[in-house]
Amino acid sequence: MNSSSFSKFLKIYGYDIVLGLIATFYVLAVPYTKVEESFNVQAMHDIFYHRHHLDNYDHLEFPGVVPRTFIGALLVSVLASPIILVMSFLHLPKTYGLIAVRLALGCITLSTLRFFRAQVRYKFGSQVEAFFVILTAFQFHLLFYCTRPLPNILALGIVNLAYGFWLKGDFYAALNCLIFSAVVFRCDMVLLLCPLGLVLLLTKSISLWKALKCCIGMALLSVGLTVLVDSIMWKKLVWPEFEVLWFNSVLNRSSEWGTHSFHWYFTSALPRSLLAAYPLCFLGALLDRRVLPFVIPVFTFVLLYSKLPHKELRFIISSVPIFNLSAAVAASRIFMNRKKAFWKLLSIILTGFLLIRVHSCNFHGVL
Questions:
Q1: Helix, strand, or coil here: 309?
Q2: pLDDT digits (tens, 9 = 90+) for 112-162
Q3: DSSP summary character for residue 263
Q4: Helix (H, G, I), strand (E, B) or coil at 66
Q5: What is the distance of C-alpha 302 from the center of its chain?
Q6: Cα dihedral sign, 130-134-139-141
Q7: Distances in Å between the alpha carbon of 94 and those of 83, 159, 239?
Q8: What distance in Å separates the CA atoms of residue 216 and residue 346, rounded to the nearest whole number?
Q9: Residue 227 has pLDDT above 70, yes or no
Q10: How far is CA 274 from CA 249, 267, 297, in A?
C-alpha cells in the first residue's frame, strides 16, 4: 500500500479506527459482565453451543424478573459466529468467545455511529465531525458501554440510525427506527419518539396522516417480529418489551433496585459522562440555531425519564451522541475564534473544567 492509498484509507476510516481501538481496550481491560448483561450473554452462549435444542437454554430454568428479546442476541451471534467457529476448532476457552461477541456488538454500535457521524459532516462540516470524535474519545462511558450486551446498547445502535436519518432529513425513517427500537429492545425509547415526533409536526417536517400510516405499519411489523421470535424462544406467547413496560412503568417495580432524585441525570450522570461537553452542549444550542431542534427532543427525553425513580446512566446513554454534536458545534466555533480574547478565555475555562473532571475520575465511585 503506497502512501497516498494509506492516507486515503486513514481519511475514510481514521476516526473509526481511533474509536474502535479505545472500545477494544475497554473490552480487553474489563472483559467480564454484570448481572444486567447476563440474559444476552447467556442467550448468545446458548445460541452458539445449544443451537436448536431449546430445552437446554438457560432462560427457561432461570427466566429473570422480566423476559427479554432474543433478537439482539441472534443478530450479534450471526455476526460473531465465524470467529466462534474458529475458536471452537482451536479449543480456546469460552472467555474468548465473550470477548468476540462484545467486539461484534461494538462493531455494530460504532458502525451506526459512523452513519450518524457522516450526516454530521455533511450538515455541519468536517471540523465539527472532528470535534465530535475528539469529545467521544475523551469520554469514558459511551465507548465503554458500546460493547456491553445490554438492551440499552442494542437500542442505541438503532437510535444512532434514527439520529442519522434525522440529520439527513429522512424523518419517517428516523421515526421508524425509534419505533422498532421501542417495540423490540427498549420500550422507554417512546420517551424519545414522542418529543421528536412532536417537534417534526410543529415544524411541519412531516404530515400527521402520513406519519400515522408509516408508524402504525412499522409498529405492527415490529410487534409481529418480536412476538414470533420470542414466543418460539420462550415457548409461550410473549411480547417482552410490553412486559418490561408494565413492570417498570405501571407497577413501578424498578424502584426496588434503588432510586435517585429527580435532578440526578442533570447534576450527576450527564456531567460525569459528557465531561467538558456538558457545558459546551448548551453553548452549541445557543450559538447555532440549526442545533436547537435536535437538542430539544433529546433534552425532553432525559427530562421525562427523570420522572422514573430508578435511574442509571445506561438508561439515557442514547442521548449522548446528540449532546456531543451540540458540544462539537460549540468547540468548533471556539476553535475558529481562538485568537479573539473572549473566545480564548472561554477555551481556557472549558479546558480547566475538562481537566478537573478527568482528575475527579481518580476517586472511587465517580464512574
A1: coil
A2: 999 999 999 999 999 999 999 999 999 999 999 999 999 999 999 999 999
A3: T
A4: coil
A5: 14
A6: positive
A7: 12, 31, 31
A8: 47
A9: yes
A10: 27, 12, 18
Cβ-count burial of 347 within 10 angstroms (0-12 exposed, 13-18 middle, 19+ buried)?
A: middle
Do the beta carbons of residue 196 and residue 166 sit within 8 Å?
yes
Residue carrying C-alpha cell 447467556: 42
Q: Does residue 273 contact residue 144 with C-beta atoms inside 8 Å?
A: no
Please name the amino acid found at residue 285: A
Provide the grid cell at 234: 420462550
272: left (phi over 0), alpha (psi -120 to 50) or beta: alpha
CA distance 188 to 301: 9
Nearest to 249 by CA among 312, 178, 309, 318: 309
CA distance 294 to 190: 16
Buried b vs exposed e over 166-178: b needs ≥16 C-beta within 10 Å?
bbbeebbbbbbbb
Find the mean pLDDT for residues 177-202.
Answer: 95
Q: Which of 49-53, 121-125, 164-168 has the lowest mean pLDDT?
A: 49-53
State residue 6's pLDDT score.
Answer: 76
Alpha-carbon dihedral sign for residues 91, 96, 97, 101:
negative
Per the confidence metrics, is the pTM higher than 0.85?
yes
Report residue 278 as a C-alpha cell: 456538558
Closest CA to 109 of 135, 76, 138: 76
Q: Would you state the cell numbers that stand for residue 77, as one nine-digit string?
A: 451471534
Query: Rounded to whole angstroms, what are the CA distances from 184 to 43, 67, 240, 248, 362?
Result: 16, 12, 8, 16, 37
Per-residue pLDDT at 330 exceeds 90: yes
Tell me 364's DSSP state.
Answer: T
Residue 8: per-residue pLDDT: 82
Q: Which residues contact 34 (CB under 8 A, 6 or more apart)?
A: none
Distance CA 56, CA 34 (A): 23
Q: Per-residue pLDDT for 177 more than 70?
A: yes
Give residue for cell 417482552.
240
Burial (Cβ within 10 Å: 0-12, 13-18, ≥19) of residue 305? middle
Cβ atoms of residues 64 and 243 within 8 Å: no
Q: How far is CA 151 from CA 94, 188, 197, 359, in A?
A: 22, 11, 23, 31
Residue matched to cell numbers 439520529: 163
